[in-house]
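Cast an eye over this sequence plus tokens and explain the fold to me:
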Amino acid sequence: MTLLSFLLFTAAVAAMTYLLTRNSDQSGADGFFLAGRSLGPIVIAGSILLTNLSTEQIVGLNGGAFQDGVVVTAWETLAGVSMAVLALVFLPRYLKSGITTTPEYLEKRFDHTTRFLAEILFLTGYIIILLPMVLASGALFMSTVFDVPTLFGGNRELAIWATVWAIGLIGSGYAIFGGLKGVVVSDTINGVGLLVGGLLIPFYGLAEVAKQAGGSGIATGWKTLTESNPEKFDAVVFASENPEVSVPFTTLFTGVILLHLFYWNTNQVIVQRTLAARSLKDGQKGVLLAAFLKLLGPLIIVIPGIIAYHLYADQISVNDEAYGTLVKNVLPAPLTGFFAAVIAGAILSSFNSGLNSAATLFSTGIYKQRIRPEASNADMVRVGRWFSLILAVAAMIIGPIVALYAGGIFGYLQKVNGCYGIPMLAVMICALFTRRLPAASAKFAILFGSLVYLCYLMIDWWVVKVPISEFHVQGMLFAVTLFGMFLIGKAKPRPEPFVQEHSGDVDITPWRFAYPAAAFTVCGAIGTYLYFS
């Protein structure tokens, strides 16, 4: 029954995606990479939500909650704040410039070489970090729920390899043949299922907690969970109190908030959905709707990990298997299949979103600007599809290695994200909010920031454990990078101040309720964090 419901829901999503996108124009670059700049707020919100809420989030954060408790909710609460910044500050400037990628904005503000360096940095991060991480976390979940190792005689390693390749082949099909329109439509459908299914997990989990305590009902389950595990329900934990905690409170004001701002405001995988908006008003509505829905995040990707700890702490040896174990044990078989299909959709969403964004960066940037300037729109689409295929194969090779040997997936992801997240955030902030900094300062930031952080990682992993949180290292690197950029700007400023022109591609009239909606979302995010403090 589990397998049957999984196959039925997966097939239904694929069929609906095909029917809704079969008449869309995928022949031109604008149609393939930006869905013809035709996306409305519901589709934007659904795609942003599901691109973010993949298994590296759901599996990884619940694994973090299994170990550390609600302290990891910081990754959810700060998301609402960062998305409000995107809607009010970054997006109006992006849409005014008519860009297809965020590095393209750097070209307009600085020069061609800056764009090229940014594209290389993004693509390296996607190939080595993002795409393999999505496949790795997805394989861990699906392998646990469907007990895939038994199909391979108990060989867990072989089961992970097979699951990664199965997910990768299906996900690459969406990105290669459907373009951004196919990606966002499937995202929206799966997004509804994810919200419904994700909220079912704590419901059934708390019911099981109450049952084992000799009672019944969600309220009883919550009371039992909080009273039995008080150490798991404190979001404010300092490193001096627990040196092993993954997100010490002070890091919220250094690397944690910086990684949020990078991810939600400059990362092509997320921003590309908003660049495809048919107007600024629609883009702001979509972003803020997604931000509001993220307020439900702790219920979906934090509380289940604590429930799994309460119920199965003695049965789970790998933190990242906590969520899959809970789903497998508390959901009825038909719902298990349905939810596994939804999670599969979330996996495919993040994977094919990453592929589509990488293809966009390569085709419209490196290929068009550096390799073949005379390339037509059809040429760029064709090259983008081949590039997606090559990236997919690379990710399917690296993914199983990450799943088997990386340890805690979400913590590892945030640690290595600093390699490209911190320098890119510094460059983009200066690009948007300064007028006289020269291109040399941007090149310095990209090269200096990425290389210095890479050296830090190599020392921390292979030489000696650095006695300071990686998030504080990211904060210090961000400050030093900005300082270096302004020193260069002081020594040799741009001759003329940069003036951003309106491309006229979309209407940039803002949504009149954008500021109240953003304020509501920020207050909700802060309130959620305070509740768990």
Notes: The domain at 2-17+41-531 is CATH 1.20.1730.10 (Sodium/glucose cotransporter). Residues 156-212 form the longest helix (57 residues). Confidence is low (pLDDT under 50) at residues 25-32. The two ends are 41 Å apart (CA to CA).
